[in-house]
Amino acid sequence: MEKLFFVTRSEENYIKTIFHLGGNSSALIATNAIAEQMETKPSSVTDMAKKLAEKGLVHYKKYQGISLTDIGIKTALSIIRKHRLWEVFLVKKLDFTWDEVHEVAEQLEHIKSEKLIDKIDELLDFPKFDPHGDPIPSKDGKFMERDKQLLSDVELNTEGVCVGVKDTSAAFLKFLDKNKIALGNTIKVLEKEDFDQSLHIEMEGKALHISHQIASNLYIKKND
Amino acid sequence: MEKLFFVTRSEENYIKTIFHLGGNSSALIATNAIAEQMETKPSSVTDMAKKLAEKGLVHYKKYQGISLTDIGIKTALSIIRKHRLWEVFLVKKLDFTWDEVHEVAEQLEHIKSEKLIDKIDELLDFPKFDPHGDPIPSKDGKFMERDKQLLSDVELNTEGVCVGVKDTSAAFLKFLDKNKIALGNTIKVLEKEDFDQSLHIEMEGKALHISHQIASNLYIKKND
DNA sequence: ACAAATTTTTAGATTTGTCTAAATTTTAAT
DNA sequence: ATTAAAATTTAGACAAATCTAAAAATTTGT
Ligand SMILES: [Mn+2]
Ligand SMILES: [Mn+2]
Ligand SMILES: [Mn+2]
Ligand SMILES: [Mn+2]
Q1: Of A70, A77, B16, B58, which has the highest C-beta tally within 10 A?
Q2: What is the mean pLDDT of residues A208-223?
Q3: pTM, whole model, 2 decimals?
């Protein structure tokens, strides 16, 4: 007793959103939070909550909040796996840039074929992270959360490597491109401005001055 | 004035079906024919006919029949292009067999991204035919109909090459696999049985006896 | 040409996913 | 502990895509 019901595209999008808002574990996610994230109305979320509870994908108690069941979590991980693998495919095989992939992956993540996604995984040589540095769940739902910190949180003189972005908007990613900031680049924190918390850093040997807004959306992995 | 409206997945499926039933040119396609092909009810087809006419994708006159407008034809060709390119992709890049690809392509053909399909086209080196021998329309809607004939229609001693299948069902394709009949194989018609119209042929040098049903679903290109 | 058969359309209902506006419950503030 | 504010749910509506049953138009057979 597991894949009992067909899950629609809309249901998949709700499940994914609940997961991203932390609805795994036993945290209860608010109706409003889901509505805001999905740019829909709270009443629509309530309607869907009932439907998903009916299908055994979420726990739902009126007025209390929503969280994913085990099956819901498995479903979410499967969608996220597909989304991220397609993103890697688009970048590695079709020369998409990292700011172009999300939109298309939003569509591709709903394609229903286990064989398809497993073959894509194989074609890409089983990547562990997507183009934004986010981990890719394996077929059985496991994934390694990388040891990473926001650049804005590390102390002076820290050296490391860019490993991910928090903000994945096209606008932010294009800004990073323009400033030659890319995942894999080496980085060192040279100075912190107390006044505006901007940072003077060295990236791949070149000096760069970046705002707090940028630093608080870039993940780095500190050198051992 | 061209891509005026958003075309839904359901509308795309109707457009494609009308095209395949010959609704390009000015032939009028019957409501019942469309309903049968799509395994839906005639009343649903009528409803959709009105919607598509409203959007300028089909010509529709009550009780007379349905045909595609120029925009409708362009739309159909774009969907068919996507379907067939994805089929080639699945076979060439992901080792799908030709009997497995159709189902998945039915989903992938609805992905909306011009860049995606053009890059897939490029990755595959601009194939002209899909795994079943059907021509792939180019970006601008042109395609070459191959010079081909049903094996059941050619005369005795004809020599040629298998270039396509008429029946694309998984059952038929698997049958061909089992009998080592593949596109690209050389073929020669040795003898025709008058009684049941079965054929004795030579395929890649090996003798084979095939029924009329098989011969009438295999396309060959005669040697010059 | 005209009745019978067939095809097609209409009318009305259903499901899914969404919305607005009103009612209810929970939470926060005094 | 009340009251005010905020969050959530309900009730009722709507659009899309489908269906069934009945009505209308067309085609066919004699
Ligand atoms: Mn993404
Ligand atoms: Mn990503
Ligand atoms: Mn196909
Ligand atoms: Mn095909």
Answers
A1: B58
A2: 97
A3: 0.95
- CATH T-level topology, domain B149-222: SH3 type barrels. (2.30.30)
Residue type, A196: D
For the stretch A67-115, pLDDT in tens is 999 999 999 999 999 999 999 999 999 999 999 999 999 999 999 999 9
In this complex, do A113 and B107 lie within 8 Å of one another by their Cβ atoms? Answer: yes
From the candidates A12, A107, A125, which should be mutated to test the interface with B, based on the most B CB atoms within 10 A?
A107
Distance in angstroms (rounded) separating the CA atoms of residues B96 and B100:
6
Same fold, B9-68 and B149-222: no
pLDDT higher than threshold 70 for residue B4? no
**Token pair of A126, please?**
């089983």
Give yes or no for B50 touching A (CB within 8 A).
Answer: no
* Neighboring chain B residues of A103 at a CB cutoff of 8 Å: 113
Give the pLDDT score at B2: 52
Strand (E) positions, chain B?
A: 58-61, 65-68, 149-150, 159-165, 186-192, 199-203, 206-210, 218-222
Distances (CA, A) of B115 to A8, A95, A119, B69, B102: 26, 10, 22, 25, 22
In chain B, domain spans: 9-68, 149-222
Beta bridge partners of A61: A65
What's the Å distance between residue B42 CA and nucleotide D24 C1'? 15
CATH of segment(s) B9-68:
1.10.10.10
